[in-house]
Amino acid sequence: MFSGIVEESAELLKVVKDQENLHLTLRCSFVDELKIDQSVSHNGVCLTVVKIEDDTYTVTAMKETIERSNIGLLRPGDKINVERSLMMNGRLDGHIVQGHVDQTAKCVNVSDADGSWYYTFEYDFDKEMARRGYFTVDKGSVTVNGVSLTVCNPTQNTFQVAVIPYTYEHTNFHTIGVGSIVNIEFDIIGKYLSRMMVLSEF
Predict the structure, then answer these.
(1) What DSSP line would sit under 116-178, residue for residue?
(2) Quick one: which of 11, 69, 77, 109 could link to 120 by a disulfide (CB 3.0–4.6 Å)?
């Protein structure tokens, strides 16, 4: 479980393909605090630490994860938003994030907001998935590359988020431009509510 409050952007050092899996080796400031089997969010994808060596750690992504996220598009040198799992003894600054990416979205516009930025993302809309809560609502929560953000101006298959300078500088949002592919996770509360409404029809 995560909060969507990114700790930093880790540097991707190596990508190794192993049959249908990808092993990603990264470097960040808290490697010495990690443990084998620990969960870490990578651009919003929950991956398990499988190896720690010197100042690097390695995680493995399987086929399902690669197909549903932008993990397969990553290359050495890329910056990846990372967050360790949520400690349940403090304030929840973002929102409840599972680290289970629902799908990818494409950035279709970036506009200046006098010091901040508005990013517009477009995703494939599926009516049946929408009935199950896979959509955005105005002022609701969405996770983009692991960052907890508030939705504005949603349509059937697009939404905007406002990004302040701190978030822009301390996550990989400063690398996102028109055409960039990002990971999105819809709000789990919306999914549960939608599921309850569907079940009430029976």
Answers:
(1) EEEEEEE----HHHHHTT-S--TT-EEEETTEEEEEES--SSEEEEEE-HHHHHHSGGGG--T
(2) 109
